[in-house]
Amino acid sequence: MPLRLPDYYFRIRENGAAVFRVDTENRQQRIEMEPIAIVNVRNGEVRPQGERQLTEADQAAIRDWLAERQALLAAREVDDILRTVDHLNLTAQWAQSRATDDQLSAVTNALLLAMHDLRRTLVRKQADRLEKGGTAKD
């Protein structure tokens, strides 16, 4: 049973993706990838390639991909922060049990400044939420 390829391919880039229309229905029976647009995930901008006019199907596929990609990136961002919490706990354990004086001297100021900045930011944001009548979750 032949594998059915998707109609579109999204090559991930720094701030989005290059969008290609996939064509396997040609005389040479090769996979053709025709560039049709560039998508910016941050602002949702879609720029057609060259003088191309995007079809409704093209636009729908790009909208669907953009929504899925933005949701995935948001979930990854939260996961990265939760991993940071784990890493801070591991760092505390390392500092308490295994770190040498020289190692602690090398990292203490950078860690203290970063943690102070983070704490200040979190406290300010939490106060803003409470002021607006929101709830502060632990």
Question: Which tags fit this structure?
Answer:
single chain; 138 residues; alpha+beta; 2 domains; 4 strands
- The coarse overall form would be elongated
Oligomer: single chain
- Strand-pairing-aware structural class: alpha+beta
| Strand order in the largest sheet | 1-2-3-4
Poorly predicted residue ranges: none
Strand content: 15-25%
Order of helices and strands: EEEEHH
Alpha-carbon distance between the two ends: 52 Å
Largest sheet: 4 strands, antiparallel
Total of DSSP H or I helical runs spanning 4+ residues: 2
C-alpha Rg, in Å? 24 Å
**Care to count the β-strands?**
4
Account of the protein in words:
The protein folds into two domains: 8-71, no CATH class; 80-131, no CATH class. The chain is an alpha+beta fold and 138 residues long. The chain has helices spanning 56-97, 101-131; strands at 8-13, 16-23, 32-40, 46-48. It starts with 7 loop residues before the first strand and ends in a 7-residue tail after the last helix. The protein is elongated, with a radius of gyration of 24 Å.
Describe the structure concisely.
This protein is an alpha+beta fold and 138 residues long. 53% of the residues lie in helices and 19% in strands. It contains two helices and four strands, in the order ββββαα.
Topology:
Blueprint: E1 8-13, E2 16-23, E3 32-40, E4 46-48, H1 56-97, H2 101-131
Antiparallel strand pairs: 1-2, 2-3, 3-4
